[in-house]
Amino acid sequence: MMRLLWIGGSALLSSFAAQAEAASTTYAKVGGWEISAEPPRCIMQGFFGGKDGKKVDGLTILYAADKGGVLLIWSNNWMTYLPTKGELDLGLVFGKDGTSVDASWGSSKLRYEKVGNDYMFTRAFKDPQEAEKFLRDFGGSQVMGLTLGGTLLTSVKPNASEAIMKLRECSLSGSSAE
What we know:
By secondary structure, this protein is α+β, with helices and mostly antiparallel strands. It has helices at residues 2-23, 128-140, 161-173; strands at residues 25-30, 33-38, 41-49, 56-64, 69-76, 85-96, 100-102, 107-115, 118-125, 143-148, 151-156.
């Protein structure tokens, strides 16, 4: 089942990336996020540098309003100890108010692959209700983290509430870049 999910997610990502390269336009820039249009699908992408300037995490969210789905892609350049392909059981957590953490997302086995110098992990939210909950949680959180077991691997401050609104608008409107 996970293999089919990975193949489907990879195929979707590859297909979308090829289409996006050929036909996407910048729909909006909101804070550190760039939203690219390929209506009815849109991509939101942001990068987060570590304090040392060497560690970089990237988050890409593909939103397909017509399918009611979201594909989350987390990339990083610092997990160099991993083989070029594999899977990890990663948890997704959101934080608010500096103290409360919502760990209700639990963990999932995610396949990853090294592409160039970066490792790319994907998580698909195919159920429309789950996809909407992810977008709400992501947009409303001050911190998003990824865990391995009980250990926090990385966290970012997405500051994404307005960017999520633009991502939804982009995907639902079917209009071209502003």
